[in-house]
Amino acid sequence: MKESMQGRTAEETTGFTRVLIANRGEIALRIVRACKDLGLESVVAYTRADANADFVRLADDAWLLEGEGAAATYLHHDALLSVARRAGAEAVHPGYGYLAENPDFAQAVIDAGLVWVGPPPSAIRTLGDKAGARASALAVDAPIAQGSDGPVADVAEALEVADRIGYPVAVKAVHGGGGRGFRTAANAEELPRAFESASREALAAFGDGSCLLEQQIVNPRHIETQCMVDRTGRVLVASTRDCTLQRRNQKIIEEAPAPFLTAEQERLVTETSQRLLAHVGYVGAATCEFLLGTDGRISFMEANARIQVEHTVTEEVTGVDLVAWQLRIAAGETLPEAFPSPRGHALEFRINAEDAAAGFFPATGTVETYEVPSGPGVRLDSGVRAGSVVGVDFDPMLAKLVVTGENRAQALARARRALAEFELTGVQTLLPLHRALVDEPAFTEDFTVSTLWLQSDFMPRFTSEGSVTDAPTPGRSGTAPHDDSSGETVDVVVEVDGHRMTVKVPATLAAPGAAPTGGTADSPAAARRARRARHHRSAARTDDSPQLVSPMQATVVSVDVAPGDTVSTGDRLAVIEAMKMEQPLTATHDATVKAVLVSAGDGVKSGQVLVEFEG
Fold first, then answer.
1. Is the pLDDT of residue 51 over 80?
2. pTM (2 decimals)?
3. Alpha helices in 280-321 (DSSP H)
4. Please, which residues bridge with residue 229 across strands?
5. How far is CA 559 from the centre of its chain?
6. Domains of the chain, earliest start first
7. What region, left, alpha or beta, does residue 336 occupy, with left being phi > 0 and alpha being psi -120 to 50 degrees?
8. What DSSP character marks residue 5?
9. For 415-441, how does the pLDDT look when each residue is reduced to its tens digit (9 = 90+)?
């Protein structure tokens, strides 16, 4: 057995030597690497779609999960426990998402005689239930916004609570997380739809549609603490983080430590986190989340009973391997008296398979070119490589780019360099958006951003070419599909008086010999890009289109219109779901519905007609 921490073998240190990782993608690979560092053997469960993924290839052992989709595989308790038993695993690490915050799965792991690398089921149940977390926060005198005493039964009760606490309100799934099951309503007219949408999304994602209501804090920042708790009850806060840049209440950029906090604000979130986790008998990694209002007031929001996607930035500024500590704590090790104080600054950019200029619609395809950045201060946690197929069944996050500097200014400078070096073709990603954001003064200098800033202020100015205009693009809200035929460009290399230059031109205007990024003009990659450009032009809805078509392969969640209905620009026509996210489809012009061709629950293909209009 390989020697590891403090000169002891992994078996002497941990009491277990073989860990099943009940997850996939980049977090599964992250845990595989932590196991290797500790001298532990890693076992992964995988689907046929993930058969060639890096987390499968690099694990010590891998077992196939029969079935398709998350429900039949990474969310299937019995299937995962069967793999653990057959593979001889002694512990289970759930990563984040999927079953990481499922107390029933945690209990099933323990009942099977395995070590659960996470908090006790009772703590998961208390904190995973937002009503329970709210009650616990009140018990430790945490700062908290007004809200319902627990889950609200229906729309009628939601309206009563909202009248009592005042608008705007936030509808929050009791068992939600990652922004799913979260909606806001500015008035009584918006609340029924917000409540029903949050409940429906939560039911699909977490198996429970219960929701509570809270006062919405307008234009807040999102602040959180990274915590670790051992079995003696010692609670350490490794660092604060800022996760304000979000779309649809899901983070896309995070940084540590949280910039521009006062000493009193940092003390408040730190001490509140310590009291809360001690109160619920927590063990392991946790994140406590807060909102910081424009008036400087802090409000507790929720606690996540797992490692977070953005744990990387805390690791970079503290030098603490948080995933390794999860495993060490699960084996009974005690934390040190303190973690190192944060040094420098780190930012994480989520490289999601999404088209930001098309309302953040999830993108699918095959990764063609994958050239990753390197150099000082650059870390990449990735779940894909060239040839990886990105489908619709799982989360759209492909990789996380983490950049660290001596201070925030240097970290941003390195981020610009790393993002410029990063080349990923074949699948639309958030890379163009990130490149624009690191040059945006509201984020890089003034820090006047809020959790709604990205979609309400920045995205209306963001173009399909990845540039930012001075004023909102006509007809663009940043939340609906658009005709992106002008967004397909190719890089053409030219020489002017011996000076080599690269210019971008629209794909439709490029000469036959022009070389698109990632391949030559006559390469298979270029042919696929040309087909995608033609498909986008045929599938997108122009202002007077007689049809509503699906922008991607998805499942229809709801249809909100019927034949004969009159709709106006911006009205919601239907909702589809792909990559665990609901996507509303809205009208681009005033029209009368002629026919509805799909129903809730139907699977649809990209470009399939959903609704037809008169005329």
1. yes
2. 0.77
3. 311-318
4. 235, 284
5. 26
6. 5-117 (3.40.50.20), 146-215 (3.30.1490.20), 219-343 (3.30.470.20), 344-468 (3.30.470.20), 485-539 (no CATH), 547-613 (2.40.50.100)
7. beta
8. G
9. 999 999 999 999 999 999 999 999 999
